[in-house]
Amino acid sequence: MTMQLASTEIASRTAAIVQEMKGLEGPLLPILHGIQEEFGHVPQEALPVIADGLNLSRAEVYGVVTFYHDFRARPAGRHVLKLCQAEACQSMGSDAVAAKFKQLLGIGFHETTRDGSVTLEPVYCLGLCACSPSAMLDGEVIGRLDDEKIEEIAAEVRS
Ligand code: FES
């Protein structure tokens, strides 16, 4: 999905999604998910359209976007690396894994490298607890992260 979409294009596609889902019970979250699926993130330009469609203030919509870390306010990098931070992975050293990735990539969680190559995000259980600590790279799960795998992944996403 291109990042250079015109505001009017974003507004009209957002309006279509709002129209389609506003009848749902608790429509805001499904609408935001739909928008993130459409654009890869929730663009600023979409917020007033959602607010108008649901009779909410922009601040309310913005508050929800920033509260749920699933939603990105900016486009993601070419790769998305999610590191599991839930209990089983915690007990197998996911903190150290995260620290190592942050150091190798020079970014923290919810950040994208300046060259746009990778976005780092936490995730809470990938269903791969038996192989913890685990991660997901561009939708593929990876288990038993050790120093070697971490370095390989970091090199791959930066190349
Ligand atoms: S806790 Fe990490 S995969 Fe389940």
UniProtKB/TrEMBL annotation:
Family of the protein in this entry: Belongs to the complex I 24 kDa subunit family.
Cofactor(s) listed: [2Fe-2S] cluster
Listed NCBIfam families: PRK05988.1
Name the UniProt record assigns to this protein: Formate dehydrogenase subunit gamma
Alphabetized InterPro entries for the sequence: NADP_DH_HndA-like (IPR028431), NuoE-like (IPR002023), NuoE_N (IPR041921), Thioredoxin-like_sf (IPR036249)
Residues that coordinate or bind [2Fe-2S] cluster: C84, C89, C125, C129
Cofactor note: Binds 1 [2Fe-2S] cluster.
CDD domains listed in its UniProt record: TRX_Fd_NuoE_FDH_gamma (cd03081)
Keywords, in A-Z order: 2Fe-2S, Iron, Iron-sulfur, Metal-binding
Any one Gene Ontology molecular-function term assigned to this protein's record: oxidoreductase activity
